[in-house]
Structures are given as structure tokens and as C-alpha cells.
Amino acid sequence: MLLDPSLPQFWSDLVQVLLIGTGQTLYMVGISLLITIIVGLPLGIVLVGTEPGGLFESPFGSRRLGRVVNRVLDFVVNLGRSVPFIILMVALIPFTRLVVGTFIGPTAAIVPLAVVAIPFFARMVEIAIKEVDTGLIEAAESLGATRWQIVSKVLVPEALSPMILGLSTTVTSIINFSAMVGTVAGGGLGDVAVRYGYQRYSTIHMVAVIIVIFVIVMVLQGLATMLAKRFAHRSRPTRAEKTAPALRASAVTGA
Amino acid sequence: MASGGPATYFVTVIWPAALRLTHSESLRYKAARTLRTTVISVQHVSKTFRSGGTVTAALQDVSLEVAEGEIFGVIGQSGAGKSTLIRAVNLLERPDSGTVTVDGDQLTALSPADLRRARRKIGMVFQHFNLLAGRTVRGNVELGLEIIGVDGDARRRRALEILDLVGLADKAGAYPAELSGGQKQRVGIARALAGSPKVLLSDEATSALDPETTRSILDLVKTINTDLGLTVLLITHEMDVVKRICDSAALIEGGRIVEQGRIVSLISTAGSRLAHELFPLGAVPSLPGDTVIDITFSGGSADRPVIAQLARTYGLDVSILGAAIETIGGNQAGRTRLALPGSAAGNAAPISDLRSQGMLVEIVGE
After folding, report:
1. Which of B89, B125, B75 is nearest to B241 (CA)?
2. Parallel, antiparallel, or unpaired: how do β-strands B38-51 and B97-102 relate?
3. What ipTM does this complex have?
4. Min Cα–Cα distance to chain B from A185, Å
5. Chain A residues interacting with chain B (CB cutoff of 8 angstroms)
6. Where are the alpha helices (DSSP H) in B50-111?
7. Which three-class secondary structure state does DSSP give residue B206?
8. How far is CA B356 from CA A107, A130, A171, B272, B313, in A?
9. Tell me, what's the pLDDT at A61?
10. What's the CA angle centered on A225, arms A224 and A230, to 5 degrees?
11. CA pair distance A104, A56, nearest whole angstrom
């Protein structure tokens, strides 16, 4: 059945389909992002820390354990990042079933999304933390800080700005992959684009989905840039506050 | 008492009398003791760095002692090992061998947890300030207090108090990026002082600053030293730093301490390289037929008309080749290079006369 824009219920149907799709996408992206932060942040910290000369170079007093942990995590992260998402998604089906009970629907989609985003974000965290001046770690050590205090009071706060930018890149790719997940497992804006735009030849649906996704990405990107600036303190905070609303406005009008 | 024998008499009368010092004596004794209490003791410390195929011996059997309340300067060129040395004092760099003791704690023997506790008594200031960019000035000063576990209100009060001390009370809410180099170093000093340490380590604290700012920071360190009685160990490559604030100094070269001591005594030590660096007179000119001598004055001899006396008594045509006068530790001290006509043997009488007046005379050329 072809969709006819001249029919009265076409537009209200479009809005409803888009609303449901957007809701599902935000749900999938939101939850997998949360999991990504919870797992990816410590993973990134451990990746940097277990390097030779790092903070966790010898966990429990064993230098060898540190090296092994570093090698294993590095390997896992590389593996996670190199497998194409469509393959990863299918390969993870048994695991998804085990965790969620099904492999269809937005909730099931969260599993492969988180699995692909965690190593990605962990690398971002690793890069951000490596940028923190080792002198700051020494200053904290000279004040008698524990390793946990160094992580929580120095490394994470000082790397916050690049980490937020890394997170926004991560979100963008999660949104990207969430569309792909939609075609296989069902749900979200990707599903709308494929079922209505492609299979039922509705260009209007296709364009609408593209616009909605674009707006979501732009808003998140703008938000991240604003927050990153807020935490960077390279310039005066008053100036950052002045530029932030302008950024957000341009993101919206740009869409 | 009448029943007591000679033994009782000894124990009750003679012995206490022998022990009893006069009031002034006991005071002098006390003062001498406070002066000589060692706060930082580095004993036979060695450290070798290996990177790839190259082995660098950064410290070789280094020992030094810093007395309570003094400012001790370690001077050396870059690569001499001074940075490794100061970092070994709070064990940011763990030595391969030797011991480090600070305020009675032998740091090299402590467990990681005890070492962290001991480090709270050792403040450190860095060349590149090492301030957290994401925290305000007050936040940076509070860092050490947070680590110790001081609660919010007390932390805030202490931070403001210390910021007032370093002259930055009005900058409490600013971020480091908004400060000048000198202001950043004041924050660094405030951060180091917030936890009320016993000693302050300064790792080239003024090397990234311009001369004027350097002077103001050195004056601040001196003030802290006098007002809070804080012992300071600093490393530098600038003799001016030693000249301006240090009570004692050590010269480090190729990972070894070549010379060390109190500056007042170094000045009157023949052949002291630190003393020569303190009063640079340049290369000795070659004057055939003349004897060139360097005279070092310190303390009382500095304001006596030595040269005029010399000329009058011995009828010598004394020429002054160079002179350097400095105020060191509040005392005038200086070095003058003179040319006396004739050989050294011929000038033996005036030279021994100068020596008998308490001056250090070195024959540097004839």
C-alpha cells in the first residue's frame, strides 16, 4: 500500500510515527550512552593507568599483572572497534538474548549499541587523560593523595573538557548505529526510514527522519561544545557564558 | 642530711650542682640545639636512570643535611641531578639506595600509606606551577586539605587565610588561566602551605619567571621562612637565588655534591667554588712582576679600611683589580682582588698581616 500525502491522515500518521521513532531512538541512545559512560570511563582510566609508569602500573604490587591487564584491555578494545557493526550486532544475538531475553525491539538494541560504544569511548577517555600534565599528578602526590584521589580530583576533572567532546562524538556514532540496529531488531528512526521511506517509497518520511536525526545530533553537539568550554577554563568564564546561548541558537536555526 | 655518707652527699648536692647550668648558658645551649636540629637528612642516596641502552647516574652517593628553620639551596647546572635530588626528598623519585629522613620519618622505609601521611608534612612548589586549570585559585589551595580530609568550612577558611598570606586574597575566585606567572606561583606556594607542612621543597620555583617577579617570590619565601619557621630546601641554577635568601648551599655536579655548608663559613673557606660563584671576579689577569691576591671580607672586617692600612703600613702601591660586595644573610661580605708589586715571597709580611686580621687571603697569580 502506497502512502498518499493528499490523504488527510497522512500528516498526522507521519507525526505519530516520527514521535514514536524519535522516542525509541532517544531511549536506545540514552540508555546505551549511560552504560557506555559507566563502563567506558573506568576502562579508559585503567587503560592509561596500567601503562608502564602509570598510576596502576603494578596493581596489588604486581607489575606483571598491570602489564597483562593493559595488554588484554588494549586487545579487547581494538577488537571491539575493528569488527563492523552489522557483524557485531548479529554475532551478539545470543548474548543479547541472554541479557534482555529477546533480540528484537529497542531494549534489545541497547546491548550491541553499548558494546560498540564502550571501546570507542574508552579510547576517547584514554586520549583525554593522557593529555593531563604529569606535573599535576606529581603535585597531588606531593600533597599525599591516594591513587583514587588522584583519579577523582585530578585526572577526571582536568580531562573533563576533552572527555565531553569525546562523548559527543560517541553519541553521534551511537545514533548512527541505532539507525542500523533499527533495520534488524526493529524500532527507532532508522526503522521508520527503512519501512516507510524505502519500502513504501515515501520521500517525505525519509526527509523527515533525516531532519529529526540531524537536529538531535546538532543539539547534542552544541550542548557538548558548550559544556566542554565551560569546563576548559582556558578563557574567562564570563565569555564562555556569553557564547554558549549563541551556539545553541545557531544549532537550532541551522537545522 | 647529717646521717648521709659521702655517697649521699655526692648524689644530692654535687651532682645536681654540676648539672645546673646558669640561665644564659642553658639559653645558649637551647639556641644552639634548635639551630642544629636536622629536619631533612639525605644519606648516601644514588639513583640511576635507564632508558633504552643508555644508563644515566643522576645521583651518586649524595648526602646532605638541612637544619631546622634554614633555607638550603642546591645549585647546579641542568642535568647535574638537582631535580632528581629534590624529588627524592619526598620520594616522587624513589632512590635506588640510601635513606631519606624528613622530620624524623625515614621515608625510604615507610609503607605507601605512611608515606602519604608523611608527605603531608612536606610542601612542594614546582617550576611550572602545576595548578589544576579546572579549579579556582581557592579550589587549588583547598586540594591538599581535601586530600587530608578537612571539612568544607574549615577548608575554605584556611584557604582564604593562606591566600591572604601570599597576597592573593582578591584572586580567590579566579582561574589559573587568568593569572600572571608570579601570581600562579603564589597559588602554588599557598597550596603547598595550606596543610601546614614542616618543610617546603622548591623545584626551580622561580626559573619560569622574570627577574622582578623572581625577586618578589624569593622575598615571599624568605618571609614564610622567618614568620612560620618553615625549613626550605630549594634547587636552582641561579646564583642570585642563593645569594638572596639561602643560609646554606650545596653545589651539585654530575650527580655528586661537590661542596656544601653554611654560606657564612663557605665565604671564609679557601678555594670554595661556591664562594667564587657568589663573588664573581672573572679571570685572573696576567701581571708579570705583581702578586695577585683575592681577599674575602666577612662580618666585622668588611667595614675596616684594609687597603689604605696596607698601603700606609707597608708603603705598597696597591691596585684594585676587582671587587664584589654582597649582603648575605644580613651581613656584608665581599671579595676584592688586589695586585701587589713584587713576588708572593716578597709580600709575605702584608699577606700574613691581613690573615691575622681574620681575612681570607688567596694568592691567585704571581
Report:
1. B75
2. antiparallel
3. 0.79
4. 43
5. 133, 135-136, 138-146, 149, 153-154, 157-158, 160-161, 231-237
6. 82-89
7. coil
8. 97, 65, 85, 20, 15
9. 77
10. 95
11. 40
